[in-house]
Amino acid sequence: MLTRGVVITAATVLASLSSSATSHAAEGPKGGGDIKCGQYNCEVVVDVPGQAGSQAGDSTGGSGSSGGGDSTDKTVCKYELADPQPRVGSLDWEGHKPGDGAVYEQTCGWGDLNGNTIVRMVWLADPPAQVTVEPAVLALRAVDSMLLLGPDIASPHTAGKYTVGVPMWMWVNQSVTTYGPNTASASAGGITVSATAKVSKIVWKMGDGASVTCSGPGTPYTPSEGMAQSPTCGHMYSKTSAGAQNSKFPVTATSTWTINWQGGGQAGQLTEVRQTNVQVAVGEVQVVR
After folding, report:
1. Does 62 score more than 70 pLDDT?
2. Cβ contacts of 184-187, under 8 Å, gap ≥ 24
3. Is residue 68 domain-resident?
4. Residue 159 sits in the same domain as residue 101
5. CB 3.0–4.6 Å: which of 40, 78, 182, 204 could bond 212 by disulfide?
6. Residue 236 in contact with residue 168, Cβ under 8 Å?
7. pLDDT score, position 14
8. Which of helix, strand or coil describes residue 204?
9. Are 224 and 231 in contact (CB under 8 A)?
10. CB 21 within 8 A of CB 75
11. Which residues pair with 279 in a beta bridge?
12. Is 33 helix (H, G, I), strand (E, B) or coil?
C-alpha cells in the first residue's frame, strides 16, 4: 500500500492543501514526523494513508520498489514570509487587510521521479509553526496598513492665477495620511511592532527649473501679508508659463515620510516617499501707458 506525506504547520496551512490530504492530516501525525526549520520557513513531514500504488507512475515500474513492497511518496510544502508584503488591494491578501495575518510564499514539491513543484502565494492568519518573523518585516507590514499618501497641496492650486515677481506661498493641508503623525502596528508569531510615521520634508519642483525644500507644511497666506514672502515655504517666478505645455508649469511636491518603529526587542527607522502633481499658470502684469 502506497502512502503519501503532507506538511502540517498550522490549521490555516492545512486548509490550503487538498481536501483528501487535509481529512487525513487533521487526525494528527502518523508514525512520527520530520521537522526542518530555517530562518523564515518550517516544514513538518508526516505520513498519512494514501491511495493504491497505480498512481505512483506505472511507466517506472509501479511503486518503484523492485521487491514490490511499500514505498513513500512525500509531499513537502515550505512557507516563507513574503518580503515585502503585497500592496493593499492585492489578490494575494484574499480579501484581508495588511496587518491582519500575513502573506506567505508556499512551495510544495512531490518526492516522485517527475520532481513536480507548485509555488503560490497564500494568506495565513497565523505564521506556520516555528517560523521566525523578523521585527523589521512586521514594521513594513505596519507601514503598508497606514495608506500613506502624497502632499495634499493647498497652494499653489491648479485653478489659481499667479504673477511673475509676486511671492508665492506654498503650503499643504495636514491629515493622518498626507502629513502625519500616523501610527499602526502589526503582529505575528507572538511579536508586535508599533510604528509612527510623519513627513519630515517636502521638496517642491516648481517647473521653471527651481527646487524648494521645506521642512514643514508651510504657512497659509492671508491678505494682510500683502507682497511679503512666505516665512517658511515660498517661491517667486521670474518668467511666465506661456512657453510650457498647456501654458502651465508642472509643479511636483514630494514628501519624505520618516517612520520610527519598535518591537520584538528591536527598533529602527524607515523612509517612504510620496508625490503629488499640480499645474500652475503664471502670467505677468501688463502696464498700459
Report:
1. no
2. 184/99, 184/142, 184/143, 184/145, 184/146, 185/99, 185/142, 185/263, 186/98, 186/99, 186/138, 186/139, 186/141, 186/142, 186/145, 187/138
3. yes
4. no
5. 204
6. yes
7. 34
8. strand
9. no
10. yes
11. 250
12. strand
Does 288 fall in a domain? Answer: no
How far is the C-alpha of 197 from the C-alpha of 224, rounded, in Å? 35
Average pLDDT over residues 183-189: 88
Specify whether 72 is located in the same domain as 96: yes
* Residue 150 phi, psi dihedral angles, 5° rounding: -75, 175
Nearest partner of 122 among 44, 27, 29, 9, judged by Cα = 9
Residue count of the chain, please give it: 289
Residue 148 shares a structural domain with residue 61: no
Provide φ and ψ at 91, rounded to 5°: -65, -20
CB count, 10 Å around CB of 49?
12
The CA distance from 275 to 252, in Å, is: 7
Task: Find all residues with CB under 8 Å of 127, minimum gap 6, and list them.
Answer: 10, 79, 81, 102, 104, 133, 188, 189
Domains in the chain, number: 2
Q: What is the pLDDT of residue 269?
A: 97
Instruction: Give the C-alpha separation, 90 to 98, whole Å.
Output: 10
Whether residue 199 lies inside any domain: the answer is yes
Q: Is the dihedral of CA 182, 268, 189, 19 positive or negative?
A: positive
C-alpha cell at 73: 511518496
DSSP E strands, 1-116: 3-7, 30-37, 42-49, 72-81, 102-110
Q: What is the mean pLDDT of residues 172-201?
A: 94
pLDDT band of residue 119 (cuts 50, 70, 90) is confident
- Assess if residue 63 is contained within a domain: yes
What is the grid cell recorded at 276? 503629488
